[in-house]
Amino acid sequence: MNYLMIFIGGGLGSICRYSIGQMVSRYSNFSFPVGTFLSNFISCIILGFLISLFMGKSNIDQNLKILLIVGFCGGFSTFSTFTYEIFELLRSGNYQTLGLYVISSLLLCLLGFFAGYRLYKLNELV
Fold first, then answer.
1. DSSP state of 12
2. How far is residue 36's CA from residue 28's CA, in Å, rounded to a whole number?
3. How crowded is residue 10: how many other Cβ atoms within 10 Å of its Cβ?
4. How far is it, in rounded angstroms, from Cα 116 to Cα 98?
5. Residues with Cβ within 8 Å of residue 79, at least 6 apart in sequence
6. Which residues are CB-neighbours of 86 under 8 A, at least 6 positions away?
7. Residue partners of 108: CB distance under 8 A and separation at least 6
8. Domain range holding 86?
9. Which residues of 29-44 are buried (b: 16+ CB within 10 A; e: fewer)?
10. Contact between residue 42 and residue 101 where contact means Cβ atoms under 8 Å apart
11. pLDDT, tens digit only, all 126 positions of the chain
């Protein structure tokens, strides 16, 4: 059952990632990989929210956790694409964009995770 949950969640996450990439490429012509950046950032917000939501709750169905955390967030985020785009920016000599992309991706995705985590905690207080 775990593999089915990963398959379904991963498929949905991948479709969302692809859709964001297509939408962004249609409306922008930046050398900065905006689609991958947005997918990773949004995925970190969702992951932080889910971790906060599920933390300390034993009554949450394990299959739901696997579907959303491993499947959806795993399919939605794109570390392999991130790595390839870093390589391409390096190879093309676009060092300013490379530095901006790496630093902003790491920092903002970490901040996004914490924002998602806190978002649930704030909701818990209401």
1. H
2. 13
3. 18
4. 26
5. 40
6. 98, 101, 102
7. 37, 41
8. 2-125
9. eeebbbbbbebbbbbb
10. no
11. 899 999 999 999 999 999 999 999 898 888 888 999 999 999 999 999 999 999 888 899 999 999 999 999 999 998 878 888 999 999 999 999 999 999 999 999 999 999 999 998 887 776
In angstroms, rounded to a whole number, what is the distance separating the alpha carbons of residues 47 and 104? 18
| Closest alpha carbon to 66 in 124, 125, 126, 8 | 8
Hey, what are 87's tokens?
């390589």
- Global confidence as pTM: 0.81
Which pair of structure tokens corresponds to residue 10? 């991963």
Question: Rounded distance, CA 23 to CA 35, Å?
Answer: 8
- In the block, tokens 């991130």 appear at 82
